[in-house]
Amino acid sequence: MARVFLVNPPSPEPVRTPLLAFCHLAASLRAGGHEVALLDASAPHAPHGHAEIAERVRAFAPDLVGLHLKTLHVQPAYALARALAGLPLVAGGPHATIVPDEPLAQGVRWVVRGEGEETLVELADVIDGRRAATEVAGLSWIDKGLVRHNPTRPFLMELDRLAPPLSALDLFDPSWYDARPVPGGMLAPAGILSSRGCPAACTFCSNDVTGRRFRYRSAVSVAAEVALLRERFGLIGFSFFDDSFAVGRRRVRELCTAIAGGFNARGVVVPYPGTEIYQRHHERFGFTGWWIREPPLAYAVFPTSWDDAEIRRAYAADAALDRNFFRHPPHRLERIRQALVRKAELTIGIQRRRPDPGIAAAPIGVPAAGAR
Ligand code: B12
Ligand code: SF4
User: Fold this and answer.
1) Range with the poorest average pLDDT among 174-183, 268-277, 346-355
2) pLDDT at 365
3) What ranges do the domains of the chain cover?
4) Which of the listed residues 196, 202, 240, 245 should we mutate to test ligand 2's pocket, taking the one with most ligand atoms within 8 A of CB?
5) Quick one: DSSP state of residue 371?
6) Which of 46, 60, 99, 152 lies at a C-alpha separation of 20 to 30 Å from 179?
């Protein structure tokens, strides 16, 4: 059993939710029989000073210390690596995947390229003396002073077989974040990952970890996670962190069926003429020609100011919900309404955390008026 301490380095751009990558990595390490501790130093109230971080790490007596690297915040991460000199460092994440030689030149001994669940567990096995480093696909490392890049590990195809990320939530200290923990002391996770990869190839996109090959979890597995989040944290709305959530019509349909819900990016859908959703459903639900036969949808100007009442109106009131184009039964309408109210509350919460009244006036996190 190896002892692994994961550190998300401090960054000038604090993140207010547990790092999902660490949920996945820690869950897999535990499932592989290893001991894990972690520190999300990018969280607003976590320790940020090198001395305090180093003290915590050393107190755990780790066999491996993992650092998460993103390009934008790599300089503070390398400064931390210097402060942790002498400890067996392993780096991973988007930046380490793209330029593995760089962390190796910055005092890091091992780099995990790409998805890390299997590679990190196998590296922990190497530390335990249970396998050779040369056998670990996806690993770059320094061997007797020379940099070696082992062959690339294929993408993880069977995502259902991964250890459930929720099983590592207890490792995050709620006091590092602003969010209030639920009874039982744990924080809700930031989001769900139902798929990995994206077949598109936007020229500005840096998704080298999950790549172009689209893979997805079964609807049953995602529905089970949603049910657990509802039960344990009382959540009624869920963020999906997928690279490209909408890929695969059959998949999304199965997901909708498996949870008795819908996916709502920006308010309630309006079936515009010429769209597929209109074409397929107007006869069945009786909204043929609705824009000419029925009173116009009464949307208020969107948005006008950013006080609480305005946020509530912009998020929680939706003329399309009242119109109920798809004849949802009352209980489902009520669930959608609750989700909209929750969205409004979250936005008000974000707004309240903004210290600068000038910034508070900016329409951050609010759907564009035309997005309906
Ligand atoms: C969700 C998300 C966020 C959320 C994270 C919330 C949270 N609490 O987790 C928020 C909104 C906060 C966020 C913020 C930012 N993000 Co972001 N985000 C993502 C997104 C969509 C999913 C990340 C994720 O969870 N992936 C799933 C996990 C399983 O994959 P992963 O994170 O890569 O981790 C795996 C491997 O990298 C590796 N690994 C990761 N860390 C480590 C550490 C060790 C030791 C080891 C061994 C392995 C390892 O193993 C993990 C498991 O397989 C990705 C897109 C993507 N394709 O990943 C962008 C992405 C990671 N974000 C990106 C960027 C640019 C940012 C910002 C810098 C945006 C900005 N401000 O400009 C900020 C940075 C904030 C900060 N201080 O860190 C880029 C990073 C590119 C780069 N080269 O660094 C990505 C790749 C988007 C893109 N395609 O360009 N982000
Ligand atoms: S993840 Fe988004 S930005 Fe990246 S290639 Fe796919 S569609 Fe483009």
Assistant:
1) 346-355
2) 37
3) 3-149, 191-263, 265-372
4) 202
5) G
6) 60
- Distance of CA 371 to CAs 28, 92, 240, 310, Å? 39, 36, 19, 18
DSSP 300: P
Numbers of helices and strands, H then E, in the chain? 14, 9
pTM: 0.82
Check if the beta carbon of residue 166 is closer than 8 Å to that of residue 228. Answer: yes
How many other C-beta atoms can be found within 10 angstroms of the C-beta atom of residue 148? 13
Q: Are 320 and 267 in contact (CB under 8 A)?
A: yes
- From the CA of 243, give the closest atom in ligand 1: 57
CB atoms within 10 A of CB 260: 10
Q: Give the residue whose CA is nearest to atom 37 of ligand 1.
A: 93
Q: Which residue has the higher pLDDT, 347 or 337?
A: 337
Rounded Cα–Cα distance for residues 226 and 223 (Å)? 5
- CATH node for 3-149: 3.40.50.280
What pLDDT does 157 receive?
Answer: 97
Confirm or reject: Cβ of 364 under 6 Å from ligand 2.
Answer: no
Element (H, E) at 68: strand 64-68
Cα-to-centroid distance, 318 and ligand 2 (Å): 29
First to last CA, the chain: 53
Which one of the ligands is nearest to 162 CA?
1
CB-neighbour burial class of residue 183 (10 A; exposed 0-12, middle 13-18, buried 19+): exposed
CA 266 to chain centre: 18
Token reading at 82: 């210097």
Highest mean pLDDT, choosing among 79-93, 278-292, 349-363: 79-93
